[in-house]
Design goal:
By secondary structure, the chain is an alpha/beta fold. It folds into three domains: 139 residues, Type II secretion system, protein E, N-terminal domain (GMP Synthetase, Chain A, domain 3), CATH 3.30.300.160; 147 residues, Beta-Lactamase (2-Layer Sandwich), CATH 3.30.450; 185 residues, P-loop containing nucleotide triphosphate hydrolases (Rossmann fold), CATH 3.40.50. 42% of the residues lie in helices and 23% in strands. The chain is built from 23 helices and 19 strands. A seven-stranded mixed beta sheet has the order 13-12-14-15-11-16-19, with helices on both faces. A hairpin with a 2-residue loop joins strand 9 and strand 10. Helix 15 packs parallel to helix 16. The N terminus is likely disordered.
Length: 573
């Protein structure tokens, strides 16, 4: 039961909001009743019911409690202050240390700065006086993942194992006996260090983890929003033990260091299960490992949320309604092709059609969809797996990637015999995807009859909404925008950098697309073996929005910057 002092404060705050004209007496009464029924704070109910904004509520609290306000997204976080309060305690009590005062006092953001018992506990824990503040424009729990980094904890865990490892296992020593390696791998500090690295990767929205040995150390690098960021430097003496630990988790041979290997493992963080795909290869300084983070909770299965909107979305929706034919998604590695394909079959999985896939590997598993994984040892590649699927009475087939003549011909055979086939291929844009199939050895007539549409895409970074502001474009950006949109460029939105985006100005990614629908005119061009630029010109003539234009439309909407489009959307024209 909430104590009376806190309830009385909530009553005073509610009355102050009514007197200030922010609430009516009736709204306050209903909110109080809901708070009592659900056992929540009045302030939480007021925000949940959108009766009052967080900014107004924070300002009212500041006046009532006579405590300052802090913008956690803009303030410079002092790592020394963060280190004083354990992450577990901070999460449990919703407090966030962000700085040290001139007199050594701990500057602390709190959701309940009138909780004097908590303040006394923190003062005893840190041996410092506490100066509480109210967070503006964001909840503390939303900033904890940004502020709490595992670097110091990882260093501490690795330091515990550094001495014995450097004495027994030189960085480039010959492969050790399996029993000796396993003993080092099972060492608790190394196990905890690996857990911290993977957990922080999930928290940071990283798509990949790179563990790269150098001449005198080993770098842990995350790929966040498509850009590599060095997160931590670990001693070279413990590099191999970390690699071996992950190899054990991924069911790989820890004694084999010369041959490249692949593997996979899963980890559970709370109620969240995350899959990891591992690849390792030997380099001149030691084994390098790259871990792909496959977090299903972050995947969006709505193509609209992926960035496919407007006329390209309408064209794609029409393609998905076709009963047969091939739809191909193209782009370079890391452009989101698999996500678009998954979102497509997710939309088609209504339980009334047999949907089957052949993938290398299966990244995410779905109910009501039969997924087959390639297996070289068993003789199952894309072509053989696809032929097996065709004997399983499928309605819709997903081919993870078309990379050779046999797979391409088999996929078109399926498309021309009554199946809807979705596939991906590496190509620069939608038009060059068509010529890519011909280069693989598929006859132009087969391509023209089997292919119904091509989607080309790239991933671009979105402007951070927390530090988004209007800015003047550079001359290059202005010229690029004007050339594509045929309208003057004066100012655009850009991110200035804040804690939420690690001062990059970008937070998250979205796709830019072009959808080429095959018409009779384009089919005629294909049969005549015309070039990709001619096919693209015809597609634009009949209304196709190019990736570059789709990107500039997103610039106009304030989603990204012209510089990001110029950096990411590259084509051969």
């Amino acid at each position: 039961m909430a104590d009376r002092r806190f309830t009385t404060f909530q009553d005073r705050l509610g009355q102050a909001l009514v007197e200030g004209g922010f609430l009516t007496a009736e709204q306050l009464t209903r909110a109080r009743q809901t708070a009592q029924t659900e056992g929540k704070r009045l302030t939480d109910i007021l925000q949940e019911q959108r009766l009052i904004s967080r900014d107004v509520l924070t300002t009212a609290l500041s006046f009532q409690l006579k405590v300052p306000i802090v913008n956690l997204k803009q303030v410079k976080i002092d790592e020394k202050a963060v280190a004083l309060v354990p992450e577990e305690f901070a999460r449990e009590h919703e407090v966030l240390p962000f700085g040290l005062g001139a007199g050594g006092e701990l500057l602390l953001a709190m959701e309940s700065p009138n909780d004097f018992e908590l303040i006394n506990t923190l003062s005893a824990m840190t041996r410092r006086s506490i100066r509480p503040s109210l967070p503006l424009d964001t909840k503390i729990r939303d900033m904890l993942d940004v502020v709490y980094k595992p670097g110091s904890q990882i260093s501490e865990q690795l330091t515990q194992t550094l001495q014995p490892i450097t004495e027994t296992t030189p960085a480039r020593a010959a492969p050790t006996a399996s029993s000796v390696i396993l003993a080092g791998v099972a060492d608790a500090p190394v196990v905890r260090a690996v857990e911290m690295l993977t957990l922080q990767a999930v928290k940071s929205r990283a798509s990949d983890i790179h563990i790269v040995p150098t001449v005198d150390s080993s770098k842990v690098i995350y790929r966040i929003d498509g850009v590599l960021q060095t997160i931590h430097t670990i001693p070279l003496g413990v590099h191999q033990n970390m690699i071996s630990r992950i190899k054990v988790m991924a069911n790989m041979d820890i004694t084999e260091r010369r041959r490249p290997q692949d593997g996979a493992f899963s980890m559970t963080f709370g109620e969240r299960e995350v899959n990891f795909r591992v690849a390792v290869a030997d380099t001149s300084y030691g084994e390098m490992m790259v871990i792909r983070v496959l977090d299903k909770s972050r995947i969006t299965f709505d193509v609209g949320e992926l960035g496919l909107t407007g006329s390209p979305r309408q064209a794609y929706d029409r393609l998905l309604k076709y009963p047969l034919g091939m739809i191909t998604v193209s782009g370079p590695t890391g452009s989101g092709k698999t996500t678009t394909l998954y979102a497509s079959i997710f939309a088609l999985a209504n339980g009334q059609r047999n949907i089957m896939t052949i993938e290398d590997p299966v990244e995410y598993r779905f109910d009501n969809i039969s997924q087959i994984e390639t297996n070289k040892a068993a003789g199952i590649d894309f072509a053989t797996g696809l032929r097996a699927i065709m004997r399983m009475d499928p309605d819709i087939i997903l081919v993870g990637e078309v990379r050779d003549k046999e797979t391409a011909q088999t996929a078109f055979q399926a498309a021309n015999t009554g199946h809807l086939v979705l596939s991906s291929v590496h190509a620069n844009d939608s038009a060059s995807t068509i010529t890519r199939f011909i280069d693989l050895g598929v006859e132009p007539f087969v391509v023209s009859t089997g292919l119904i549409g091509v989607v080309a895409q790239r991933l671009i970074r979105k402007i951070c909404p927390n530090c988004k502001t209007l800015t003047t474009p550079t001359a290059t950006e202005a010229l690029a925008y004007e050339a594509e949109m045929q309208e003057p460029a004066t100012e655009f939105y850009a991110g200035q950098g804040c804690n939420a985006c690690s001062f990059t100005g970008f937070l998250g990614r979205i796709g830019v697309f072009e959808v080429l629908v095959l018409t009779e005119d384009i089919r005629s061009l294909i049969i005549r073996r015309t070039t990709a630029p001619e096919i693209k010109a015809q597609a634009v003539k009949q209304g196709m929005v190019t990736m570059r234009r789709d990107g500039m439309l997103k610039v106009k909407e304030g989603l990204t910057t012209p510089g990001e489009i110029l950096r990411s959307v590259f084509t051969t024209d």
